[in-house]
Amino acid sequence: MASLKIRGVKKSYGDLQVMHGVDLDVEEGEFVVFVGPSGCGKSTLLRMIAGLEEVTSGEISIGDKVVNEVAPAKRGVAMVFQSYALYPHMTVFNNMAFGLKQVKTPPKEIDRRVREAAEVLQITDYLDRSPRNLSGGQRQRVAIGRAIVRDPEVFLFDEPLSNLDAALRVQTRLEIARLHERLKSTMIYVTHDQVEAMTLADKIVVMRAGRVEQIGSPIDLYRNPSNAFVAQFIGSPKMNFFTQADLAKNGSKSLPAAASGAHIGIRPEHLTACTEAKALVCGTLDLVEQLGEYALVHLVSASGEAFIVKMEHPPKTAKGETMWFTAQSDVLHLFDQSSGLRIEAKSSSS
Amino acid sequence: MAAVAQTTPLSRILWPALAWTIALIFFFPIFWLVFTSFKTDADAVKPEHLFFFTPTLENYANMTENYDYWRFAINSVITATFATAFALAVGVPAAYAMAFDPSRHTKDILVWMLSTKMLPAAAVLYPMTFLTKNILGLFDTHFLIIAVLCLINLPIVIWMLFTYFKEIPKDIIEAGKMDGVSTWGEIKDILIPLAWGGIASTALLTFIFCWNEAYWTVRLTTIDAATLSKLIEGNRAPEGLFFGRLSAVSTAAVGPIVVLGWFCQKQLVQGLTFGAVK
Known about the structure:
Shape of chain A: elongated
CATH superfamily of the largest domain in chain A: P-loop containing nucleotide triphosphate hydrolases
Largest sheet of chain A: 6 strands, mixed
Distance between the termini of chain A: 33 Å
Number of helices of chain B: 14
Helix content of chain A: 10-25%
Structural class of chain A: alpha+beta
CATH topology of the largest domain in chain A: Rossmann fold
Number of domains of chain A: 2
Strand content of chain A: 25-35%
CATH topology of chain B: MetI-like fold
Low-confidence stretches of chain A: none
CATH superfamily of chain B: MetI-like
Number of domains of chain B: 1
Oligomer: heterodimer
Number of strands of chain B: 0
Order of helices and strands of chain B: HHHHHHHHHHHHHH
Number of strands of chain A: 19
Radius of gyration of chain A: 24 Å
Radius of gyration of chain B: 23 Å
Shape of chain B: globular
Strand content of chain B: under 5%
Structural class of chain B: mainly alpha
Low-confidence stretches of chain B: none
Strand order of the largest sheet of chain A: 6-7-8-3-9-10
Mean pLDDT of chain A: 91
CATH class of the largest domain in chain A: Alpha Beta
């Protein structure tokens, strides 16, 4: 277990700069998730921590030691690859033992540690099999097992669940959460799936185009996104944005003064249907998706933008008819129209 | 994507017939070579003995007794084996570096290496002969033939290996780095086992190229390092009087390589069509 410090890290490929100065602190035992759209640099940052990519400038320290020039295996990190990257020509046992053999671990010790990890991951029965005879989920466990046996200071996961089917993804996500609870190791996890980020993380790092947009706990990012990008990235379905033109007749009255000229962000789950007189925003019904537990109501606002409302019961309104909605003032998010930055309204509290 | 095969009676007869015809056209010269090798030199040129003659092993006996066949054969084996081994010893690490740690010039280097194959061998005949004979004193030595065979095949070896290595997911090599394996360990424990089929194909093709090489082996040897190519060349008779003998020598020269190729057909096809299907 160790802490991790990233200071002013930049990365360029020739003239192309892909990372524009990242600062981050990861506490001992923390589960940190890098999340962002593809191409945002989250995997590159992880690979720089792993030592698979060189750091162009800035510093990465693990524990108290700057590791910029340290070989991957000497950093005390272990990585779980998206593709699992198992050695196809070795048995499961040897896949897990390979790293230990490199550092001349005594065979008895190797055997003990591999079996212990296999026990945790419930893959003891497969130790003699070759990876090609395993299912995707089993391969993923082996990949995690290979990381565990090395007893690393920091675990690195590079989109480990994206090759699994939906059901297995949910299950494995839970197992990774349990694993973290059990091992209490520092873990850094890259994903583009905000649900994985929300469920697993102690701390989420939202990235876009080689920059950190916001760092915070999942609930903090959900409640207080610092800009429009984070607001729309975290939460599903994503946050609706309204302009002044979308407000209902009496809508602007219930808004804080700061709202004038700002984008108003309201999450689908925070909008409730109401009468025209009390309404904040309105829209015409386009489509209803019935999901049983709740319904997603798709509407079109006055300015022609699509927005979604999450409702317990599907409305009885017909397609093309107008519906009115309101929201509590403490769940309104205001963002500057040009910069996209959050505007703190007096009435909005966190 | 298995398409449903249309089995009309016509296609059931036409295609096999066409395939057999083409196969026979290709096979005929080989057949004729072997066939002629059992004729006497006199019979070989007589039209009345074109198909009907008394078979004889005279040419083969003659070849081993008077022309020292085994010396040439052993030289062919030695030079082709060592040239292939050295080409792989250099080619595997080179292709590994290019495939997994490319620089911005890797593509250019690959093209440049291939471009060396564009130089006509005849263009450097004089410098090569002069250099090896008068300066290096290596003319007609095994060392020279091995070096030449190795070097002329190296571009192809690296290209082939590069293509095979490219198909190995980079993640696996990186997983090795995370596991702390040394560069040599990566090659030995990960790369070679994973690319074994490709390396074997490359080795086999290189061996065949070396075995069949004639331009340099004929011109840079006299007797000590002379290979089977030289033996055939030595039995060349422009006036066409010794067809029987020449056929026997040629049969004995291509025989081993045909047998080798036959047993390794699968590897060879894989090697010859590499990169054809992604």
